[in-house]
Amino acid sequence: MAPSAPAIRLLLCDDHAVVRAGLRALLASTEGIEVVGEAGSGEEALAMATRLRPDVVLMDLQLGEGMDGVTATRRLVRGDPPAPRVLVLTMFDTDADITRAIEAGATGYLLKAERPEELFAAIRNAASGRTALSAPVADRVLARMRSPRPGLSERERDILRQLARGLGNREIARALFISEATVKTHLGRIYGKLGVETRAGAVAVATERRLLP
């Protein structure tokens, strides 16, 4: 008989202990996947990945205070080889979250509503270097590719730079010699183009896409 393939070494990263316990119990029901550790923060995930050398890190995006899942993903995949594959498992499927995670280097993006069989298959795909996307996420990615958002105008970039400095609408209006109403209009267009709903989200996505100096 041919020797069986070694189990996929998996590191869980979620700030909720109950979620981690549930995932560990669920994964114990399938062969070929071994949970080698649990991290409750991005910082902890980085430290544990260095020590445990997992094949795949199952990463939540919202990790409470400290490093978020996108930053942890970027640092994991750009770390010393062999870098683990990162499979995002989250409740959020906004365009901004998906874009940031994929641009940070995530191999896949799953929603927590997935069936267990889909999760198992995604982990195996990620370990093999294959992309794994939830069906709703894949639909959103394809829709964006077919109808890409227009680029930012020079004025919108100016406003984005002021946002990154932490300025409010009135301060931005004074700095650029325009009215507050004009600032609000441009902000609405910026949010739409970047697929975000908040000032912080706009700055985060702009930083990921290197739209800021």
UniProtKB/TrEMBL annotation:
SMART domains to which the protein is assigned, alphabetical: HTH_LUXR, REC
Q: Which Pfam families match?
A: GerE (PF00196), Response_reg (PF00072)
The family database entries (InterPro entries) matched by this protein are listed as: CheY-like_superfamily (IPR011006), NreC/VraR/RcsB-like_REC (IPR058245), Sig_transdc_resp-reg_C-effctor (IPR016032), Sig_transdc_resp-reg_receiver (IPR001789), Tscrpt_reg_LuxR_C (IPR000792), WalR-like (IPR039420)
Query: Where in the sequence is 4-aspartylphosphate found?
Result: D60
The residue ranges of the Response regulatory domain are 9-127
PROSITE patterns, A to Z? HTH_LUXR_1 (PS00622), HTH_LUXR_2 (PS50043), RESPONSE_REGULATORY (PS50110)
Residue stretches making up the HTH luxR-type domain? 145-210
Q: Which CDD domains does the record match to this protein?
A: LuxR_C_like, REC_NarL-like
Q: Which GO terms describe its molecular function?
A: DNA binding
Gene Ontology biological process terms from the UniProt entry: phosphorelay signal transduction system; regulation of DNA-templated transcription
Kindly state which keywords UniProt assigns to this record, in alphabetical order.
DNA-binding, Phosphoprotein, Transcription, Transcription regulation
Task: Give the protein name, as stated in the record.
Answer: Transcriptional regulatory protein LiaR
Which organism does this sequence originate in? Streptomyces malaysiensis
